[in-house]
Amino acid sequence: MQVSTLTRYPVKSMLGQQVEQAAVGATGLEYDRRYGLIDAETGYVATAKHPRLWRRLLQYSSVHDGGSVRVIAPDGHERAVDDPALADELSADLGRAVTVADARPAGSSVERPDPEEVLAQGVEAEVEAPTLEISQGSEGDTFVDHSPIHLITTATLDHLGIEALRYRPNLVITSDDAEPFAENGWVGRELTVGDVVLRVVLPTPRCSVPTLEHGDLPRAPKAVTPLMRENRVEVPGFGVLPCAGAYAQVMRGGTLSVGDVLRL
């Protein structure tokens, strides 16, 4: 197996940045989910998991190129993430007041409607949106959904026929002989990538995010519907859910590069 792409997402729920190499520590790839937007009214972290409120975030990109993190708006103009004007600009565009946070407050939660409800009723419907505490598998203060690393195989992606970026993984892994949803069977095992050791801890439950517009990509309900039929699996602590990919914790940090060989 090999690492075919590495991607980090400096601001949660914005489009990310593919890199050839990345430092990896206990909190994941450097600058991954380093920043998040906080809804000033509710205190929840803004995420496109609640598409009625936040799907517009998937039209923004965030990058880090050796200086500060920059946010690129849909019209192409950029602001540094620490520019005081950014929060006002985002608030105006999103229609809700937000602040930009560089550390996740303890107990931070998101609103996460059932993706089946969103598909059935539409992205503008006022569906029930249960709250979920994020970063339960991470010791850091970044804005990851659960654990520091999210990975998926090309076998799973090819089977689904869906672009990798819709699932927002850090690592896409190419294997000559992996079966679709092979990641399910990796839970509890370790992946060694050069000097980095990852421990796979959970299958990745899918929300409605993969079905939404991502930049120029249109909506894609089929990014989740096959999972509802083919890959509902037990996610410890969360129930039986449609999944694709897996979450992993970092047992030993180091440097990851595209082309690195993985051993399970």
TrEMBL record:
Residues 125-264 form the MOSC domain. InterPro entries: MoCF_Sase_C, MOCOS_middle, Pyrv_Knase-like_insert_dom_sf. It comes from Actinomycetospora aurantiaca. This is MOSC N-terminal beta barrel domain-containing protein.
